[in-house]
């Protein structure tokens, strides 16, 4: 199929992939901002969010770590990261008090990464802040548009 020649280079700034990336960064930034001001987030963690030291990579742990814990390999695979990159991320989150490593009850040689009490408070704050950011998005674009966007993205991603 032959595509028409573009008349200008505006397409480089307005194509769907760029808009999706920009929307994701904007949404995540709003979630971090809300978490930085959430009174139920442990102070040290809200300070990290406020200073923008929490990145999308750190959120991978929040999104992918099972409540009952996960092995490093499982966590890395779920997040689409290498074990080495996830290991470094777990080290940092462990230093922040979000997670800890403990013996795996099913394999004495293995370790599981589990949320700490502060990590569970962080996870709950993340849930609330994502819900609030989604509500703000719906209010901004309207319920119908938000529903179409969500359905379209689910279909595109194969969910």
TrEMBL record:
Alphabetized Pfam families for the sequence? MarR_2
Q: Does the keyword DNA-binding apply?
A: yes
Which species is listed as the source?
Pseudacidovorax intermedius
> Where would I find the HTH marR-type domain in this sequence?
13-159
The UniProt keyword set, sorted, is: DNA-binding
Q: What is this protein called?
A: DNA-binding MarR family transcriptional regulator
Question: GO MF terms on file?
Answer: DNA binding; DNA-binding transcription factor activity
DNA-binding: present as a keyword of the record? yes
A GO BP entry is:
response to stress
Task: Please give the InterPro entries that the UniProt record associates with this protein.
Answer: HTH_MarR-typ, MarR/SlyA-like, WH-like_DNA-bd_sf, WH_DNA-bd_sf
């Amino acid at each position: 199929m032959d595509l028409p020649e573009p008349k200008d280079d505006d397409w480089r700034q307005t194509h769907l992939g760029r808009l999706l990336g920009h929307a994701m960064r904007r949404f995540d930034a709003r979630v971090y901002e809300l978490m930085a001001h959430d009174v139920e987030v442990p102070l040290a963690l809200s300070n990290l969010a406020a200073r923008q030291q929490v990145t999308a990579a750190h959120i991978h742990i929040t999104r992918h770590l099972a409540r009952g814990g996960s092995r490093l390999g499982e966590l890395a695979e779920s997040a689409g990261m290498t074990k080495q990159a996830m290991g470094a991320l777990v080290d940092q989150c462990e230093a922040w008090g979000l997670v800890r490593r403990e013996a795996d009850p099913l394999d004495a040689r293995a370790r599981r990464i589990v949320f700490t009490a502060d990590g569970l408070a962080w996870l709950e704050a993340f849930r609330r802040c994502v819900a609030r950011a989604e509500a703000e998005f719906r209010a901004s674009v309207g319920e119908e548009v938000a529903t179409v966007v969500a359905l379209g993205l689910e279909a595109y991603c194969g969910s």
